[in-house]
Design goal:
With 119 residues, the chain is mostly beta strands. It has one domain (5-113): 3-layer Sandwich (Rieske Iron-sulfur Protein), CATH 2.102.10.10. Helix content is 0%, strand content 39%. It contains no helices and 10 strands. The chain has strands at residues 5-10, 21-27, 30-39, 42-47, 72-73, 80-81, 88-90, 100-101, 103-106, 109-113. The strands form 3 sheets. Strands 2-3-4-8 form a 4-stranded antiparallel sheet, with no helix packed on it. Strands 1-10-9 form a 3-stranded antiparallel sheet, with no helix packed on it. Strands 5-6-7 form a 3-stranded antiparallel sheet, with no helix packed on it. The chain is globular and about 35 Å long. 30% of the residues are buried. Bound molecules: FE2/S2 (inorganic) cluster. FE2/S2 (inorganic) cluster binds next to loops. FE2/S2 (inorganic) cluster binds at residues 50, 52-53, 55, 74, 76-77, 79, 91-92.
């Protein structure tokens, strides 16, 4: 499968357990917010939509981790997500996880794997 790669940012912009980077994806003809974070060395990306209501998680742009640096937290009502899977771990996400996006880290840069998803 030939997936196109789109540059999101440089690796150094995404801090392990810290600052993430916001970007957008085109989904079904609309621009949708998304973000990439790093956890235990690996980068992970998700749509920036809480499982509770489709609001963006970060009140301060790029701050997705809670104080423990172990969980992603929604700044609105405090839903907690697993950084490595987006799984809902507690709070108002009620078992509804984040929607993952495929990313690759190559030579100090982070790329989004583009889907042919224009349905
Ligand atoms: S909008 Fe995220 S927990 Fe309510």
């Amino acid at each position: 499968m030939a997936a196109g790669l789109r540059l999101i940012c440089t690796s150094s912009e995404v801090v392990d357990g810290g600052q993430g980077v916001r970007f957008t994806v085109e989904r079904y003809g609309r621009t949708t917010p998304a973000f990439v974070i790093r956890f235990h060395g690996q980068v992970h990306a998700y749509l920036n939509e809480c499982g509770h209501v489709p609001a963006e998680l970060d009140w301060l742009p790029g701050q997705f981790f809670d104080d423990s640096k172990l969980y992603l937290i929604c700044s609105i009502h405090g839903a907690l997500y697993a950084p490595e899977s987006g799984r809902c771990l507690g709070g108002r996400c009620q078992g509804k996880g984040l929607k993952p996006l495929k990313v690759q880290e190559i030579d100090g840069q982070i790329f989004l794997e583009q889907e042919n998803n224009h349905g």
